[in-house]
Amino acid sequence: MLNNPREFVPLAEIQSEQFDDQYVKCLYYNRTLCQQTNNKEGCGESVQICSTIDNLGHNTGDAYCYALWRNSTNEGVQLVFKGCWYGASKSCSNEESLSVLSQQQQQHHKMPCVPAHQPKQKDLNFCCCKGILCNEEIKQMPNLLLYSSTPAPEQHGVITTTMESNDYRLSDIIFYVLLIMAIIFLASVASIIVYIFGKCPRKPHSDDVPTHEPLLLDGTNLPNIGYNANPISLKEALANGKFGTVYRAVDCHNRQVAVKVFSMQDRSSWQIEKDVYNLPQMEHNNILKFLGFDRNGEGIKLEFWIITEYHPNGSLHEYLKSHTVTWNQLLKIIQGIGLGLAHLHEEIPAKDNQNAKPSVAHRDFKSKNVLLGNDFRACIADFGLALVFYPNTTCGDAHGQVGTRRYMAPEVLEGAINFTRDSFLKIDMYACGLVLWELVSRCSFNEIPCDEYSLPFENEVGQNPTIEDMQDIVAQQKKRPHIKESWSKHPGMALIVTTIQDCWDQEAEARISAETICERINTLKINNNNNDSTFNQSNLSSNNHRTTMTTPLTNNHVNTFINNNNNINNQKIVNSPFLPNIHLNHYHPHLNHNGSASTPMRMMISSHTNNIMNNHQT
Fold first, then answer.
1. Which residue intervals define the domain Protein kinase in the entry (predicted)?
2. Is 563 a domain residue?
3. What is the pLDDT of residue 379?
4. Are residues 553 and 438 in the same domain?
């Protein structure tokens, strides 16, 4: 019986048995066996005899007793296993247990099984010990419950862990104390740096993206705007757009600037606009002046700012709602729009240590995105949907149907865009035609009063058209905003009307470029400023809102352009109700001037016009 290390002896027989040192007596219990209905072994009180010598006489190592239990709210201490534990183990030496036992307990070898560590299964408790029936009594010692990172091998289905010393816990404490001290030190250093460098002004850096201080990138005299010590103060809101709100603001030197505030979900539009403004050779007199960008706030309240020049007149849309324009103002605004779009669309080669500027399509051109300076200088703004055409690259997966529905070209509404640079630039030109129509509709001339301001197609589709509304009006019915007959009776205005119709042509390929708009406006300005000027400017005033005509534009003014072009063959001369005897480089078969979808003749100034303009620039 004693040669079998797994043999069980009733508890009552233990007192009369004599055992030598090669055997260990442990209390045995198996909850799993006890719960099986057909096997009640292990439910009663029994002792397991654990031998350190196997059947061949070999020493198997030390033998110990163990216990595994869990603390239950309902049942208290709930035993799981008790029995023999084999193998050398420092954690079972009871050195820590002996220190807390009474001398009487140690003398009678009635040492409890004291847990020195916690198993990885945190609802279980484990202990092992060496001594006669030492696992009979379980003593909880919370101060010694440490977690082990290295599990011991499983034996007899029992989950165990290795013992860790108290030194490990002390090292943890030291580590965390040092970590906290390091964090406090770094925070102090950071506070000092912010205090020293967070003042306004400081030298701007062209590549840094600050989290607190705005970054000015232009070469103006406006200094950098420090956010921490001298923040930008937002005043009243000027406009609300698809991607943000524009505020009038005051910088740390009490200068007025405009701040466009983007929310977190519109960060991509902020990034696009910032990148467009930062393109090489992007700065232009008719592009809104970019002053810097900023990030403000934290977490879900994080905002992204674009800081630009402030224009007190606001957008062209807002200005036309309450003002009319004179003939001179009309020409200046149209010229500014043409120059701004031409610069935006143009590819400019590298020069003067500056990289090349790629072509850019605006993709949301409208009167709300044209700002007016005090001198009626038009500036194009809002590049949140812009598309940059870098050399030797394609448009990729650029979404075609973007922008404001009212200003969408027919091909955009129909989803029939060719994803090429020229196609996107022609879309801008269609929208430009609508903006020019808004301008002309508020220009007073020939003592004819202006109508109230209205948006393009407002009479047809109202204030908030749907895509379907615009598809029906523009793409299917091929309508355009109404052209008044009185506009065509004004010779100079007639050329502008033709320019408008050339911009909003149903066929994208037939639309003129922004450069052509500039050429035609230059032609009108030349005639204004010649000694035999067509117009008397003495009566032009923004207060009386009308222009007085003194002398009609005659054939001689236009024939000057034609006489230098006698060598051009096979070109047709026709009489136009807009301008007589204009050379036609392109002729459209449908000569309809009421603004409907039938496109009027394309009146293109011949190449010799450029020579005249070069000699008469004003």
1. 232-524
2. yes
3. 97
4. yes
Listed residues 290, 310, 330: the one ending a domain: 310
**Residue 152 falls within a domain, yes or no?**
yes
- Both structure tokens of 292: 């810097």
399 Cβ contact list (under 8 Å, min separation 6): none
DSSP assignment of 83-124: EEEES--GGGS-HHHHHTS-HHHHHTT---B---SB-SSTTE
One domain, residues 145 and 224: no
Rounded average pLDDT over 345-367: 94
Last residue of some domain: 108, 143, 164?
Answer: 164
pLDDT of 270-312, one tens digit each? 999 999 999 999 999 999 999 999 898 888 889 999 999 999 9
- Whether 144 and 230 map to the same domain: the answer is no
One domain for residues 102 and 208? no
**Separation between Cα atoms, residue 607 and residue 566, nearest integer Å:** 12
Domain of residue 409, residue span: 400-615
Strands 124-129 and 370-372: unpaired
pLDDT (tens digit, 9 = 90+) per residue, 326-344? 999 999 999 999 999 999 9
Q: Quick check: 500 and 437 in contact, CB under 8 A?
A: yes
Can you list the alpha helix ranges (DSSP code H) found in 350-405? Answer: none
**CATH number (domain holding residue 45):** 2.10.60.10
Between CA 17 and CA 23, with CA 20 as vertex, the angle to 5 degrees is 90
Q: Which of 155, 150, 75, 96 is nearest to 119 (CA)?
A: 150
Cα–Cα distance list, 351 to 83, 281, 285 (Å): 89, 9, 19
Indicate the number of domains in the chain.
3
478: left (phi over 0), alpha (psi -120 to 50) or beta: left
Instruction: Tell me the CA end-to-end span of the chain in Å, nearest whole number.
Output: 123
Asked whether residue 220 falls in the same domain as residue 93, the answer is: no
62 is annotated as an active-site residue: no
Q: Would you say residue 198 has pLDDT above 90?
A: no
* CATH code: domain of residue 462: 1.10.510.10
Q: Are 138 and 104 in contact (CB under 8 A)?
A: no
Residue 380 falls within a domain, yes or no? no
Of residues 575, 562, 604, 610, the one with CA closest to residue 587: 604
> What is the residue-wise DSSP string for 544-571?
TTB--B-SPPPHHHHHHHHHTTTT--S-
Average pLDDT over residues 468-494: 92
The dihedral sign for the CA sequence 358, 364, 369, 370: positive
Residue with tokens 């500036």: 379
- Confirm or deny that 90 is annotated as ligand binding: no
Read off the CATH number of the domain in which 261 is found: 3.30.200.20
Instruction: Determine which one of 251, 266, 294, 364 is catalytic.
Output: 364
Shared-domain flag, residues 610 and 494: yes
Asked if residue 129 belongs to a domain, the reply is yes
C-alpha distances in angstroms, 331 versus 94, 147, 184, 326?
A: 101, 83, 64, 9
Strand 46-51 and strand 256-262: the pairing is: unpaired
Residue 126 shares a structural domain with residue 262: no
Q: What are phi and psi of 91, to 5 degrees?
A: -70, -15
What is the identity of the amino acid at 267?
R
How many angstroms separate the CA atoms of 249 and 258, rounded? 6
Same domain for 71 and 20, yes or no, is yes
pTM of structure: 0.54
